[in-house]
Amino acid sequence: MIGSALLIIGLSILAAVDGRDVLKLPSEASKFFSEKYGDGSVEGTRWGVLLAGSRGYWNYRHQADVCHAYQLLKKGGLKDENIIVFMYDDIANNYENPRPGIIINSPDGEDVYKGVPKDYTGHNVTVNNFLAVILGDKAALTGGSGKVVESGPNDHIFIFYSDHGGPGVLGMPTYPNLYADELIDALKRKHASGTYKSLVFYIEACESGSIFEGLLPEGLNIYATTASNAEEDSWATYCPGDNQSPPPEYQTCLGDLYSVSWMEDSEKHDLQTETLGMQYELVRRRTANSFPFASSHVMQYGDLKLRDDPISLYMGTNPANYTYSFLDENSLLSSKPVNQRDADLLHFWEKFLKARQGSARKLEAQKQLTEAMTHRMHIDDSITLVGKLLFGIEKGTEELTRVRPSGEPLVDDWDCLKSFVGTFETYCGSLSQYGLKYMRAIANICNASIKVEQMAKASAQACVDVPSNSWDSLDEGFSA
Fold this sequence. Notes:
disordered N terminus; Legum_prodom; Topoisomerase I, Chain A, domain 4; single chain; cysteine-type endopeptidase activity; Rossmann fold; 14 strands; EC 3.4.22.3; protease; alpha/beta; globular; six-stranded mixed sheet; disulfide bond; three-stranded antiparallel sheet
């Protein structure tokens, strides 16, 4: 008798209609759960914005991350009209790709490229379009599909970014890069418009904590996690030579440690029962403990009360996982990661080693490796010399590497930072993805109240000669 009653209650919901108690039919019960948990029909629509900020085959993993994230959201029930994808789209059919038209994100992974919307590709992957999409501002777009986040006050937004970064900046495959103050301003404007209920932001990039550190206030109903804190690098994974290496025909890293950690976790569990906070703890442990001396500290910012939200509120959930219970210590494997900033060198070296002696491919790999190393030495030496010219030989390095206390933003004057980056690059060539590591050094120059004339003079003196290769080009350097 009791069992029968529980069954009826489990299949039906008691509600008051026109003053009368009525027993809802099972077909109507879904509306109740929608109202309580939000499946997109009553509580609000789920939106996903996915951005890969790089181009070039050596950066394969960033577009692989984003394609994988699309497949996850799609299986979770989000519609293509509510998923907006930014990717340069030069990987799947790249001459280097051993499986044309296919992208994988793990050694035994399935094709994650199939079906991915090509909303903003090539030179349409811009800061302007990205911010316009978040804000739902179609009039501000230049090129692309025209899709924007046309969200309402009950909607939930998930944003995922994967690429290189530096203190206070996120890389883009086109000029200019995205600075933290611009992103935070857009998020504040989005909140002021009243067009979302809550927003979750995941960032894969070196020093990604600096994007929110001291900048993202509470009260915006935004919860953010980052692959690293404000001072450290993030890590690529599934790389050649790893204990979980890609197939032998691949000579590049397939994914990023933080990114594959949250996605592989999401694929494993029923996201109706796993919360954002639970996933954060699992990803934090896996990323921090992956390999000795090769790990980063996953961070969280903003409104931490959202940690209690089920992940399904933002990503949906795959019905195939409904029978899976949440395991505090799951079976996700760890691997030997590679520093994000060295993954390109690993690719060039693997390419060189495996190419036939005397072949055009071997010569190309040797040239790529030599040019990348020459560029790095040029940037290292130039920044160091600029610091010595501005602060003196003894104090130069100390001033450039100074780190502000936790909770303080990178720089007081963001316009100064952007201006001084431009000044340096005018005389010394592109910082490129590698040189983003020196954003803190340039920010410290601004914080020291150095004048633009002093910065220009020091940069001109430091860079009498600039190596002639694509990494130093102001056009190619930003996309390298």
